[in-house]
Amino acid sequence: MEIELLKIHEYRAGMVLAKDVYSEKGSVLIPTGTVLSDLMIDRIILENVPYIWVLNDDNYIIADEEESSSMKEVKKEYSKQIEKIKNIFNVFAEGGFLDEDVREVASSIVNSDKFSGDLLRCMRQLRNFNDYIYQHSLNVSSLCCLIGNWMNMSIDEVEELTLAGLLHDIGKSKVNPEILEKTTELNCEEVMEIQRHCEYGYQMLKKNTKYSDDILKAVLMHHEREDGTGYPSKLKSKDIHPYAKVIAVADLYSAITLDRIYKRTDTPFSVFEIFESASSQKFDPLVVYTIISNIAMYYIGDRVRLTNGMFGNIVFIDKEFISRPLIHCQNGQIIDLRLEKDVKISQML
């Protein structure tokens, strides 16, 4: 597909970016594949971006249709993978192994050429209470793949990390489903049983010599925390496997943004706020910064509802205050959440 370089006076709403747009500081302002709106163009101009790369003119008129088609394809593939993961968990629970199936799913994630923004929106839009554990495993694996690439890991490392992310909760197939699905407060014994899923998963995979020691450690340690408050061994930063540190962050991001039977979905910006406040103690700061700084850019232009009842679009995200973007409201007002401390994003629309 042909692409074209345009100067400031040639920017038009509806054009599709063919390359990332960067700020003067070198951060991604708007990612590849975004359909430009007037608000985004204003932001590009304010940042003094001298030119952008877009798809050629013939594609502008069908930009929304192409985006919709792309999203439909991602959703279709996403749903197919959920069914495969469900089968994998069921077989593992009975003591069997589906190594080829596991590696096939992980490989499809690593080799996917789908636009990351579509995948992230798919995670938000496709939710099924009954398939939570399988959907969560796919989300974590996909996020691990993205983070691994953003951190410039080697292809071998990204493949192993993605595989570890896919299997990180396999031990839950050994936990009583009634405990996992319980909607009331868990007692101490039930909490301890759920926490054992890390060790269950480690032991299940250890029986199969096809999985590396790195994958085994990642599955065992993904609930350990930098400050030693995690489980099962209360390890501290230097003793936690690097893959486990990535899975820990991906795991929290997915868990908070997915619908549960007992809670409403929180927005990605709720997760960013948690990471900004807790990352220095609980999570590896480099992994945290990598995920929130990259993922946040995909939400520029998205429509949101604020806790004050107003609607608007995200027009700017400050990398020092990622959880508090600028919102251009329907009435023309600009709300800077960095200054309006009592207002938050309540819903992504």
Query: Could you give the order of strands across the largest sheet?
Result: 8-7-6-5-9
Strand-pairing-aware structural class = alpha+beta
Number of domains: 2
Shape verdict: globular
What's the total count of β strands? 9
Strand-helix topology:
Elements: E1 3-7, E2 21-22, E3 28-30, H1 38-46, E4 51-55, H2 63-93, H3 99-110, H4 116-125, H5 132-150, H6 155-167, H7 177-180, H8 188-195, H9 197-206, H10 213-221, H11 242-257, H12 268-282, H13 285-296, E5 303-306, E6 311-316, E7 326-329, E8 334-336, E9 345-348
Antiparallel strand pairs: 1-4, 2-3, 5-6, 5-9, 6-7, 7-8
Helix pairs in contact: 2-5, 3-6, 5-6, 5-11, 5-13, 6-10, 9-10, 10-11, 11-12, 12-13
What can you tell me about this protein's structure?
The chain has 349 residues and is an alpha+beta fold. It folds into two domains: 55 residues, Molybdopterin biosynthesis moea protein, domain 2, CATH 3.90.105; 195 residues, Orthogonal Bundle (Hypothetical protein af1432). It has 13 helices and nine strands. The strands form three sheets. Strands 8-7-6-5-9 form a five-stranded antiparallel β-sheet. The protein has a two-stranded antiparallel ribbon with strand order 1-4. Helix 2 packs across helix 5, helix 5 crosses helix 11 and helix 9 runs antiparallel to helix 10. It is globular.
Question: Notable features of this structure?
Answer:
349 residues; alpha+beta; Molybdopterin biosynthesis moea protein, domain 2; Hypothetical protein af1432; 2 domains; five-stranded antiparallel β-sheet; two-stranded antiparallel ribbon; 48% helix
Give a short synopsis of this structure.
Helices cover 48% and strands 10% of the residues.
